Amino acid sequence: MRFVLGIVWGLLFVLGAAQAATPDAWRSLDSVARRDCTREITRLASKAKVASISGRVSGIGAANDGDRFYAMILDGRTAGFKSQWLCLYDKRAKQATAREVEKR
């Protein structure tokens, strides 16, 4: 009986982990990350307007935590000039850190 319960709990754990990677979960993560990144960008530059996302990286982190961060490259304008920002969203802390990309 314990063996069967162990298998059932194991399957529930695996199915729960697999459920987290659904398209809806990715859309939700993308939406929350974009909202928090936009908030961080406007905190840094009050005249910034984010228009679109030009790139994403779904898994960044240390070797033992390789999927902790979600990265986005956001395009927009600051005081009428084209701008681009790199934002890292910490999935564990649910916190965004953004900086403007300097073009040289």
Radius of gyration: 18 Å
Q: List the domain count as a whole number.
A: 1
- Tally the beta strands: 4
Q: How much strand?
A: 35-45%
Largest sheet: 4 strands, antiparallel
- Strand line-up of the largest beta sheet: 1-2-3-4
Determine the N-to-C terminus distance: 67 Å
Q: What best-fitting shape do the alpha-carbon axes yield?
A: globular
Number of H/I helices: 2
Query: Low-confidence stretches at least 5 residues in length (pLDDT < 50)?
Result: 8-19
Mean pLDDT: 84
Helix content: 25-40%
Tell me the structural class.
Answer: alpha+beta
Order of helices and strands: HHEEEE
Question: Can you walk through the features of this model?
Answer:
With about 100 residues, this protein is of the alpha+beta class. About 40% of the residues lie in helices and about 40% in strands. The chain has two helices and four strands; from the N terminus they run ααββββ. Strands 1-2-3-4 form a four-stranded antiparallel β-sheet, with helices on one face. It starts with a helix and ends with a strand. About 10% of the residues have low confidence.
Structural features:
104 residues; alpha+beta; 4 strands; 38% helix; globular
